[in-house]
Amino acid sequence: MAEHTEHTEKNRQYFDNLAKSYKDSFKPVLDGICRNVTARRTWISDTWTDTEAGQGKEIKVLDYACGTGVVSLTLAPFVSKIVGMDVADNMINQFNQNAHDAGFGDKMSAIKGDLLSETLSDELSGPEYSDFDIVVVSAALHHFEKPELAMSRFCQRLKKGGVCLIIDIVPDHHRMAHDFGEAEHTVTNHGFTEEQMRQLHEGAGLNEDFRYQSMNEQFVYQKDGKQRTLTFFLSRGQRA
Ligand SMILES: C[S@@+](CC[C@H](N)C(=O)[O-])C[C@H]1O[C@@H](n2cnc3c(N)ncnc32)[C@H](O)[C@@H]1O
Q1: To 10 degrees, what angle do helices 147-157 and 194-203 make?
Q2: Is 6-44+56-221 assigned to CATH 3.40.50.720?
Q3: Residue 9 C-alpha to ligand 1 middle, in angstroms?
Q4: Buried-most residue among 6, 92, 168, 194 (CB within 10 A)?
């Protein structure tokens, strides 16, 4: 496996330790994300196993920085195959356990992988890791050191016309910065505006039919002994 950057290594350590408590600690946020993905599924893409455009097609998803797999579990009934990828072993184990428990063990599984390292590992060069119909990255872009590089790496993994879906945090214009508590050292961005996401999608060649929507609700959760509030957005663009 290729070597992580120093920043990715900080994330790996932090999320490896958090993996067991992650689903419970962030429950209101994760439930909210899944609710919004479900409500906007045909806004994200028109090609699913239960839609006309997707009928009879093999629909392959990459869930990058997949964590415990909440978004994959939401999409699994409507796709053929999901590859989860993350740098934290304990997250990958949780993902695979959750997939098995939900009865999706045959179509979704996670592996350890880092698409953001300087040089990419040969293990990720096989056909099973390319030509995806959808790459989804949920609650993770704000942890990446170089979001531009990340977006172009996601573009490379998509087939032409494939959708890159980013779910992340709307900046807080009142406080300027969110309070990430003990996770602060793992964070590089305090959210992304529509304009920033447009530029990120465009810069990576993911500019076809760009769309951005705020989830228009605040998710309230407790972390490190404090009540915290976040608003999320979804953005999507297709590989030109
Ligand atoms: C806040 S969690 C989000 C997990 C999941 N996508 C979700 O929506 O619940 C961030 C995840 O990003 C992963 N991560 C951080 N940096 C990464 C990198 N460079 N490559 C792959 N995964 C990374 C962490 O291990 C963690 O599982």
Answers
A1: 50
A2: no
A3: 12
A4: 92
